[in-house]
Amino acid sequence: MEVVVxxxxxxxxxxxxxxxxxxxxxxxxxxxxxxxxxxSYFARGTxxxxxxxxxxxxxTADLANxxxxx
Length: 70
Hints:
Elements: H1 2-12, H2 14-37, H3 40-68
């Protein structure tokens, strides 16, 4: 079985094609991720989420402070 796999690999260059495909896929994924991170929509969404978390933290702090009043 191992000899057959090695023969097919040498004949069709399967390992090289697989490595090339994996490399191309990785580069494409990195390129897509960079495009998302660098988009203005991503920046706006990040700012919006940050604002939501800030408001939630402030509301939680206000509730906690009301329970501590002497």
